[in-house]
Amino acid sequence: MLKKSRLYSIFFNKCPRCHEGDFFVHKNAFWPITKFDQMHKNCAHCGQPLTPEPGFYYGAMYMSYGFYVGVILITSVIAINWLEMDIPLLITCLIPLLIILTPVFFRMARRSWLTLFVPYAPGEKKAEANTPA
Fold first, then answer.
1. pLDDT-based confidence at 128, cuts 50/70/90?
2. 14 - beta bridge partners?
3. SS3 per residue for 37-67
4. Backbone φ/ψ region at 88: left (φ over 0), alpha (ψ -120 to 50), beta
5. Residue 17: CB partners within 8 Å, gap ≥ 6?
6. Residue 6: which H helix or E strand, with range?
7. Residue 111 CB neighbours (<10 A)
8. SS3 for 127?
9. I need a surface site. Which of 37, 39, 47, 52 has the fewest CB within 10 A?
10. What 3-state DSSP class applies to 104?
11. Rounded Cα gap, residues 45 and 64, in angstroms
């Protein structure tokens, strides 16, 4: 994937401005599971604030909702049309899947939301501390 693409920072846990510093403190969304939501306050490489203002990530909830709907639609079409699965079995399989994917969608939604507002500018740097939020 091209490093200049906005998708690079979304899929690889990187700062949307420089694509170098990590967005979340832990690279793995599942370990430690109780700390999947810990973010850095600023990018370690360029100093970009990763939480621009209080309440900024409320819009990310809508993005997360969109990710869930997409997975449900795609899974339902495949399960019903090609696998000929009945609806109660599909729901029984979908609920654990969606619970397991919660940390992944949470992180992807936050990275996606900030990427909408911060353009890629690799040359800019600020000197700010990198501390967990």
1. very low
2. 22
3. CCEECECCCCCCECCCCCCCCHHHHHHHHHH
4. alpha
5. 43, 46, 48, 118, 119, 120, 121, 122, 124
6. helix 6-11
7. 25
8. coil
9. 52
10. helix
11. 27
